[in-house]
Amino acid sequence: MARLSVIIPALDEAPRLPLLLADLAAAPLPGTDSEVIVVDGGSRDATPSIARLAGATVLASAPGRGLQLDLGARRSRGDWLWFLHADCRLPPGWAPAVAACLHGDAAQHRAWCFDLAVEGAGWSLRLLELAVGLRTRLLHRPYGDQGLLLPRAFYEEVGGFRPWPLMEDLDLVQRLGRSGRIASLGLPLLCDGRRWRRHGVWRAAWLNHRLRRRWRRGLPPDQLAGLYYGAPARLRSRTRRRSAAAAVPDPSPGARRSPPRQDRRTG
After folding, report:
1. Contact 111, 149 (CB under 8 A)
2. Which residue from 179, 204, 186, 185 is spatially nearest to 194, judged by alpha carbons?
3. Second-level CATH architecture of 2-192
4. Is 0.90 topped by the overall pTM?
5. What is the pLDDT of residues 84-125, one digit of tens each?
6. Where do the structural domains in the chain lie, given as residue ranges?
7. pLDDT tens per residue, range 47-63
């Protein structure tokens, strides 16, 4: 019998976590001994209570997704590990697809993921999903919100998640890719679109690109996390500055106006 550990890092996810837990409970995996572990990063809402009521094991952790994922994996007992974000929804047909991985004859050095689907309407989100799908299939580099599924032995062989506040998923995926292969299950995992809606799709994608580039150049993950989580405040501050500049009254009709300066900030 296969043993599967579902590991879910969470922080203030009371509105979304029950939906994911219900998806998991609605389709039990035959021939599988499953456990669900919710690693709470200090929620101020009812996230831990909701997880316990659903039958999940709840672990307390300091906040930080890499730290939470690492703790959940170390405390789990499964031969297979499945990492899910608390705000995702499982697609129809997920159970047979996952069961085929658990009970198949696949090589040990292999991992699986889902396709990315972002909640919300608009062509920009659909283009984003298409780009992520191409990257996943051609480069075999999914992100953490694509539901990584892999054997524990493979996970431990490459060193597992590092307890980083950011880039923990890219770091693990790169190490997995050097030792094996990551394949898509061909099913969409629906992710909450809060961040994309808040920043705008292209602005958020540009921020992610810049952070990845800085990480590859050696900027420490804790500094990257400061840039990532401080982005909303910086964007609001920039908007206020531009709004204030636009509100400055024009000079008197007889005054000579200077040409506007080009804004060279790349932000």
Report:
1. yes
2. 204
3. Alpha-Beta Complex (3.90)
4. no
5. 999 999 999 999 999 999 988 656 789 999 999 998 888 888
6. 2-192, 195-247
7. 999 999 999 999 999 99
